[in-house]
Each structure stands twice: as C-alpha cells, then as structure tokens.
Amino acid sequence: MDPIILVLILVSAVIGGMMASLGVHLLPVGGAPAAMATATGVATGCVMLMTGSALTGLFTASAVASFWEFEHANIGLVALSGGVGAMLMIGWTMLVANLLYVFGAGIVPVSGRVAVDPITKESQTEYKTPRTDGHGMPNVSYISGIAGGFVGGFGGALIYVTLENYAHFSPATAGIVAIGIFIANAILAAYNIGGTIEGFHDPKFKERIAVGLFAAFTVSLLCGILVVVATLVFPYLGLGGAL
Q1: For residue range 91-147, what is the model confidence (pLDDT) as tens digits?
Q2: Does residue 237 lie in a domain region?
Q3: Of 129, 170, 160, nearest to 38 (Cα)?
Q4: What is the mean pLDDT of residues 218-242?
Q5: β-strand pairing of 133-136 with 39-40
Q6: Which among 16, 22, 39, 127 could bridge 33 via Cys, Cβ 3.0 to 4.6 Å?
Q7: Beta-bridge mates of residue 135
Q8: Chain-centroid distance, C-alpha 78
C-alpha cells in the first residue's frame, strides 16, 4: 500500500480522536447532580452523552456516504454530515432537558460558574437557586454543547470515511473502529473532567483541556498505528475479507 495512504489513515485517527476529546470537553455535563437540578448540564455522564451523539453522527455519515460508491465518497461532505448529525442529537437532548427543567421543576436555566453569560451578557447570579451550582442549560452552555457535538461528530465521521475510502474497510468494520477510537478518547476526557462541566466558559475547561488533548493525541496515535498494522497484515493472513 502507498505510504502516503498509510500516513493519511494514521493522521485521520489522530485528528479524529483529538476532536472527539475536544467535543467531550465542550459538552455541558451535569451527571447525577443535574438530575436533581443542582448542577448545570445534562443529567448523564460524558461518555454516555458523547457516545449517543457519535453514533448518530456515524449513522448520518454512513447514510450520506451511501449516495456514492463508498470508495468514491466525498470525505469532507461525509465528515461534515457526521458533525451535523451529532450536533442535532445533542441540540435536541439539551432542548428537551431544558423543557423538563423549566416546565417540570419550575427553574430557570442558569450558570453556576459565571456571574454573567459570556454570550448574551445576561446576569446569572440572582436566578441561581441557593446551595446549587446552577441548573439547566443556559445560553452559553447550549452553544458550547452544539459546538461540542459538531466537533466530536466530525472527528468520528472523518475516521469512518477515511477507513472506508483508503483502508478499504467494510462500512461495518469502519464504524466499529471509528466508535472504538471515539469512546477511548471520551473515557479519557471524562476522567480528565472529573465530574461536571458547563462548557468552554467553565474554568475547568481552561485548566484541563491541554492535558486532555495531549492524552487524546497519545491514545489516538496508538490506535492509528494498530489500524495501519491491521491494514497491512490482515490481507497477508487471508483476513482481507474480514475488513
């Protein structure tokens, strides 16, 4: 196989993995505290939330790729469709969560980490319930989540379509490998975040994003090397059809 193609496969795995990690750090994740409306964000963990968006993005990317013969799919457009699919999933999730908070619990979506919303410049402090760290998805968290879904979905779809086009993996195998690299980076990001996060305005984001991206680079590089080795070795073992 052309060495340039092997490098492209490796680079796509690294870039896609790092985008997955960045996407997780941008999500407003509240975990168990958010379920009790005592923390800003969606009431689930980083990995679960991002896995759902990643799978949605991969389904969207697969559907768009199917309009062409897979080996001639437009890589940029397929990756973009993955980003849009993941973004829509996250957007609807946050919207429904906000509806439950507002009309079910009777509370205003408000940040617990900043006194003024960095985007709308709306004051937050007077709307925050005492002894909570905010609740719901305020505007800045919603926009951060939309951006996180797009970035993560784009990264996952980029790995997927590259494996299909250049490593000649089947659609199923390409999807499994892409989601595997994605989840590995989502788990690392979840450990790096260590609990709840509101989005790019959260002080925790600024403090930990560099370490998170370095960890993502390392694990994605290792994953990419394994994919390249599999691409080279499997055909010689008579396993080419398994890819």
Answers
A1: 999 999 999 999 998 889 999 999 999 999 999 988 998 888 999 999 999 999 999
A2: no
A3: 129
A4: 78
A5: parallel
A6: 39
A7: 110
A8: 16
